């Protein structure tokens, strides 16, 4: 009996050691594939980085307030495809099919020249040092601040990918007419929660939408969700004058938040409470019968701008930390954000 007890102990010990080794190996693997971004990544190699990006962003936003929303959107569209790796910035070549012409991007992404301008400034100041993916992350943060939004610290150290994915751009990015559950699943796939999704949707407090993306909404259930008052009704008729029901006007644009279109605030959520979200995907956060959790969050951020700002900052960092593990192995710092270094 004594012998079998010690035999059991030694077997247990062996199992324990094997498990410990397994966890050590997987932890090491995980650490290797989950690169660590740091706040002071460029402190030595390019100390003027933040000043340069901020100065360029200030000029861009002063000359056209829409540039703020364009930067946030570019960063978002980058991170949802292969992680935040600058793949969205790549132009098509004979050997590479970029993401710019994917149906989710072709009409909605602009601001590439602004990134080129910032990159050129940085290349003359600290050549070959700052990745395009990092530039995009800082530019998006500065864009939000410049139109009244919150500040957050940006972890840095991303590499630029040498690939892009036209296919993933079509499947990973949420679309304006998508159902709530489908959008939630796309955020979950990226490791982002329902809370992150509702907070990040608040970026629609700035920026414009094309008629093609809100036509189904204004000729669909807009009247059913919105309040029957003169302001709401006159807003709907003005939307219909911008966006005809059938043919033409696809590229006509209007502000997603018509109350304070150029200010980063929480009025987007007030519009959802009134049933006046411009996109189906926005209004679903509040009006969908399945949106039990999302509805409460919309109410919370409408009532508390500070809570919205705090969560938006946290969720932007979380989104920015979606890394492309492969780009840390095979990636590079592109000299020109549009093309892989040769």
Descriptive overview:
The structure is a single chain. This protein has helices at residues 2-33, 49-63, 66-79, 112-125, 132-146, 166-172, 180-189, 194-201, 211-218, 222-225, 230-242, 267-273, 280-287, 292-303, 305-320, 325-330, and strands at 208-210, 253-255. With 342 residues, the chain is mostly helical. A two-stranded antiparallel sheet has the order 1-2. Helix 2 (49-63) runs antiparallel to helix 4 and helix 2 packs across helix 5. It is globular and about 60 Å long.
Task: Give a quick precis of the structure.
The protein has 342 residues and is mostly helical. The chain has helices at residues 2-33, 49-63, 66-79, 112-125, 132-146, 166-172, 180-189, 194-201, 211-218, 222-225, 230-242, 267-273, 280-287, 292-303, 305-320, 325-330; strands at 208-210, 253-255. Helix content is 55%, strand content 2%.
């Amino acid at each position: 009996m004594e012998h079998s007890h010690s035999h059991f102990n030694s077997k247990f010990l062996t199992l324990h050691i094997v498990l410990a080794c397994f966890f050590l190996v997987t932890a090491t693997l995980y650490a290797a594939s989950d690169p660590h971004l740091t706040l002071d990544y460029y402190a030595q190699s390019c100390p003027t980085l933040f000043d340069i990006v901020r100065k360029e962003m200030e000029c861009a936003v002063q000359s056209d307030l829409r540039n703020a929303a364009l930067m946030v959107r570019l960063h978002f569209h980058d991170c949802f495809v292969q992680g935040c790796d600058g793949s969205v910035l790549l132009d098509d070549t004979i050997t590479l099919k970029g993401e710019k012409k994917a149906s989710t991007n072709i009409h909605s992404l602009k601001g590439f020249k602004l990134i080129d301008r910032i990159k050129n400034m940085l290349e003359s100041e600290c050549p070959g040092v700052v990745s395009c993916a990092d530039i995009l992350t800082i530019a998006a943060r500065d864009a939000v601040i410049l139109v009244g939004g919150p500040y957050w610290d940006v972890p840095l150290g991303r590499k630029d990918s040498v690939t892009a994915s036209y296919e993933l751009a079509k499947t990973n990015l949420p679309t304006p007419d998508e159902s709530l559950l489908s959008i939630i699943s796309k955020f979950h796939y990226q490791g982002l929660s329902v809370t992150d999704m509702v907070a990040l949707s608040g970026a629609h407090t700035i920026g414009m939408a094309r008629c093609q993306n809100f036509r189904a909404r204004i000729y669909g259930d807009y009247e059913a969700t919105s309040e029957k008052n003169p302001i709401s009704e006159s807003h709907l008729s003005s939307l219909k004058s911008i966006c005809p029901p059938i043919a033409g006007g696809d590229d006509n644009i209007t502000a997603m938040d018509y109350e304070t279109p150029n200010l980063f605030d929480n009025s987007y959520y007030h519009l959802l409470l009134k049933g006046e979200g411009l996109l189906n995907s926005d209004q679903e956060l509040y009006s969908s019968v399945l949106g039990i959790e999302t509805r409460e969050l919309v109410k919370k951020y409408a009532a508390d701008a500070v809570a919205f700002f705090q969560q938006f900052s946290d969720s932007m960092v979380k989104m920015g930390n979606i890394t492309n593990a492969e780009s840390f192995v095979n990636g590079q710092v592109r000299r020109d954000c549009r093309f892989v270094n040769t």
